[in-house]
Amino acid sequence: MRDLVIIGSGPAGLSAAVYAKRAGLDMVIIEKNPVSGGQIIDTYEVDNYLGIPGVNGFDLAMKFREHADKLGAEFVDATVTGIDVVKEGSDTEAPIYKVKTDNGGIETRTVILATGAHHSKLGIPGEEEFIGKGVSYCATCDGAFYRGKVTAVNGGGDVAVEDAIFLARFASKVYLIHRRDELRAAKILQDELFGLDNVEVIWDSVVKEVKGEDKVNKLLIENVKTNEEKDLEVDGIFVAIGIRPSTDLFADIVECDEGGYVEALEDGATSKPGIFVAGDSRKKRLRQIVTAVADGANAVTSVQDFLVGKK
Ligand code: NAP
């Protein structure tokens, strides 16, 4: 029986692991991916994490992981398939949960959900068909394939603009296609983007179809103000239209909002006693590394408070 199982090894989960080890909790952290770090491992530059301006996302993830390892955090490589309530708790007794994985179950008194979020898809014809053949969700992973080529990014947030800036280093031309006439991304990123000669923003437009033969060669785009449609010749498209919380597995045990984010106050307590949430999968205003890390610390503090006086 564990005191705590942390599900997910992004910044929130790793921060929780560090705090849990320092608090002397008998904990284990379950990670699905072979590399810890969650979404930041695909981020080429993180420029707003206090004290480390311009750090590479993968390098930062490795630092987080090393910190957890140094304190002796126990990692289990497995995919979680659900949580069973073995026994409900009381004022004097902790509940017992079984975190089920593809590699067996782990019984625990408390759980921190730190499963983060994943890339949203456009859901348009050709998108699925051309994944890996010109459709990508990760510019840092696939950008180098576009050296001297023409590519597009769809979206107007921080990720889309960062991707366009990154791709402009390799590609001969980058189209940034955005459905409105202003970007959502931080001003500092916009300023950098607008200073690049080989980036063209296509405003007020949506991608309706990804076309190609063996691989992508065109996008059907529509101007949403004029309804004019046209084919745009490209070698690839990077979809950066936001994220969805990875919470489907837990929707029957904890309350989630209409977007699938787990409902919780600042302490990370969910609607189910003993189950806490931290990071991008929870309902909150700002999803950043710094807030994920803070959530992890808060959730462990709540776990400690919850376990006081309980067997
Ligand atoms: P985001 O901020 O939610 O932006 C998503 C963008 O995609 C928006 O511009 C949105 O348009 C557009 N969009 C959504 N659905 C669409 C659809 N079906 N078709 C076309 N366009 C669509 O998501 P994100 O850029 O992935 O960022 C996720 C979070 O990570 C954000 O909180 C972001 O601030 C954070 N982040 C921060 C940094 C950093 O600080 N360095 C870096 C990366 C990410 P509208 O604008 O019209 O809604």
Describe the structure.
The protein is an alpha/beta fold and 311 residues long. The chain is built from six helices and 17 strands. The chain is 22% helix and 28% strand. The strands form four sheets. Strands 1, 2, 3, 4, 5, 6 and 17 form a seven-stranded mixed beta sheet that branches. A five-stranded parallel beta sheet has the order 8-15-9-10-11, with helices on one face. A hairpin with a 2-residue loop joins β5 and β6. The mean pLDDT is 96. Bound molecules: NADP nicotinamide-adenine-dinucleotide phosphate (NAP). NADP nicotinamide-adenine-dinucleotide phosphate (NAP) binds at residues 46-48, 122, 154-160, 162, 179-180, 184, 206, 240-243, 287-288.
Summed up:
With 311 residues, this protein is an alpha/beta fold.
Summarize the SSE layout with pairings.
Elements: E1 2-7, H1 11-22, E2 27-31, H2 57-70, E3 75-77, E4 80-87, E5 96-101, E6 104-113, E7 117-119, E8 135-136, H3 139-142, E9 150-154, H4 158-167, E10 173-177, H5 187-194, E11 199-202, E12 205-212, E13 216-223, E14 229-233, E15 236-239, E16 243-245, E17 275-277, H6 289-307
Parallel strand pairs: 1-2, 1-6, 2-3, 6-17, 8-15, 9-10, 9-15, 10-11
Antiparallel strand pairs: 4-5, 5-6, 7-16, 12-13, 13-14
Helix pairs in contact: 1-2, 1-6, 4-5
Mean pLDDT: 96
**Distinct ligands, ions and cofactors found in the model:** NADP nicotinamide-adenine-dinucleotide phosphate
Number of domains: 2
Unreliable runs? none
Helix content: 10-25%
Shape, principal axes of CA atoms: elongated
What does the main sheet amount to? 7 strands, mixed
- Rg on CA atoms, Å: 21 Å
What is the name of the CATH topology of the largest domain?
Answer: FAD/NAD(P)-binding domain
